[in-house]
Amino acid sequence: MNTFKPAPPKVYRWAILFCVSLAMFGNYYVYDSLWPIVDLLREDPGFSYAQIGMLSTAYNIAALLVLLVGGYAIDRFGTQKALLVFALICLGAAVLTVATSRYEVILAGRFLLGVGAEPLIVAATTVLAKWFKGKELSFAFGINLSISRLGSASADWSTSFASPLYTNWQDPLWLASAVAGISVTAAMLYWILEKRAQQQYQVGEVVSANDDKIDFKSLYKFPLAYWYIVALCVVFYATVFPFRSFAIDYFQQAHGITRETAGLLSSLLPVAAIILTPLFGLLVDRVGRRGLFMAAGAIVMLPLFVAVTYLPAGPDVYLWIPFIGSAMVPLTLFIVIFLLGAVFSLIPAVMWPSVAYLVDARRLGSAYALMTLCQQVGWAVVPLIIGRLNDVFDAGPTYPQGYAPGMWFYTLLAAIGVYFAFKLWHHDRDNARLASSPHTGA
Ligand SMILES: NCCCC[C@H](N)C(=O)NCC(=O)O
Predict the structure, then answer these.
(1) Is 176 part of a structural domain of the chain?
(2) Between 224-255 and 49-69, two packed helices, what is the crossing angle to 10 degrees?
(3) What is the average pLDDT score of the chain?
(4) Number of domains observed in the structure of the chain
């Protein structure tokens, strides 16, 4: 019997990419839906900044535990079931977070989100590798990340397009639960599409989840430059993600701007990333010098938190986001957030692909899994510290100077980032691996 099946038509690949990216959109939206309601959580249930920091950390603790298990579930159940199950877990988590005003239940909701959201990202990456390997893989990853970041931006924009919901802390989170439903629908559509494709066409093999398990015995074999990148990854994400978590509340309390305007301003970060990440990716693919670009990004980030704290606000400038809204925002805040957005585009666009230039292809999955694991540790600890600093120094609208210690802490992290970025750059000048083509690891 002839079992030959043709390759699926191109349109299938893009339809699969669209479904998986939509699932990621919902995932990022639900994660970021908590940050525009920080002030409401402080007012009504009366949570402290430290408690809100813990809501962020709970996600990372869950993600850490799940990442340690590696891609087992994806390997065992396949990407179709795995994507749907993780999307359903995210939906359950979104509903649990909003179900009651009890802190422990909200905390459990955010923990459950970590259980579903990070493996959903891994499952989505596996699907892209299955469908795009040997084709437009980097481009597909870029599109996927941009659509995911649109989820983050949309959560910020909800302060404008869904402003009537922001009279209490729960309604915006019910909206987030509905968006989690979009993820579930997208996961089902992906399942149906891929099932049909498998019946008619030859679909690529699942990249073995074993590749993503961390082989602790061989960690010492990773080159020194890889560890510099991991260190930069830890401090970079431990700065940017917690800053984003508290940003909308910080703009409201310390700079006296409305929630809508604060949401638009905060969205500049993911919006800049949506536009600039692929452009920086193209630039660096052309000119190389990855170590230099990472060092430049780290240097630009260093003064931003001090600038936002001590520089005069300056004149108001017009900020317009098409289809969403417009507002007048202080020039200093605009410049700082735009520059942070540029760094948030440059460093990830260079850092993640750089690993492929340093590590043998056969151990790339392991290298990425370890890097993500370390990322979660830094990202888990910092919101706790920032929350505690804000509480201890009485940060709030009547004492905006109380936010300064937190900003100095971000600056300290950024300085550590500069140190590792420069170590990497110098190391790179001597070894020049980050200027060469990816390690094929035959
Ligand atoms: N809410 C977004 C969480 C994304 C976590 C993920 N592990 C990650 O770091 N992705 C890369 C990125 O730059 O977003």
Answers:
(1) yes
(2) 150
(3) 89
(4) 2
Residue 354 is assigned to a structural domain of this protein: yes
Q: Is 369 touching ligand 1 by the criterion CB < 6 Å? A: no
- Which atom of ligand 1 approaches the CA of 273 most closely? 13
Residue 381 Cα, ligand 1 centroid: separation in angstroms?
16
Are 221 and 208 found together in one domain? no
Residue 174 belongs to domain spanning: 7-213
Please indicate, yes or no, whether residues 292 and 333 belong to a single structural domain of this protein: yes
Does residue 121 sit within a domain?
Answer: yes
Query: Does residue 242 line the site of ligand 1, with CB under 6 A?
Result: no
Residues 270 and 359 in one domain: yes
**Is there a domain that residue 292 lies in?**
yes
Q: Report which of 27, 117, 60, 40 is spatially closest to residue 241, judged by C-alpha positions.
A: 60
**Overall pTM surpassing 0.80 (yes/no):** yes
Question: Which pLDDT belongs to residue 212?
Answer: 54
Q: How far is CA 84 from the centre of its chain?
A: 20
Same-domain pairing of 133 and 230: no
The CA 117 to ligand 1 mean position distance, Å, reads: 10
**Of the residues 213, 244, 271, which one is the last residue of a structural domain?**
213
Render pLDDT for 368-422 as a digit per residue (tens, 0 to 9).
Answer: 878 888 999 999 999 999 999 999 999 999 999 999 999 999 999 999 999 999 9
pLDDT tens per residue across span 415-435:
999 999 999 998 877 776 665
Answer with the one of 182, 213, 244 that is the final residue of a domain. 213
Test site for ligand 1: of 276, 375, 376, most ligand atoms within 8 A of the Cβ: 375
Residues 188 and 254 in one domain: no
Rounded to the nearest angstrom, the distance between the alpha carbon of 348 and the centre of ligand 1 is 10
For residue 352, the CA-to-ligand 1 centroid distance in Å is 11
Percent of the chain with pLDDT over 90: 65
Distance 190 CA to ligand 1 centre (A): 22
Q: Are residues 206 and 308 in the same domain?
A: no
Kindly report the protein residue whose alpha carbon is nearest to atom 1 of ligand 1: 28
Residues 201 and 182 in one domain: yes
Which pLDDT band holds residue 442 (cuts at 50, 70, 90)? Answer: very low
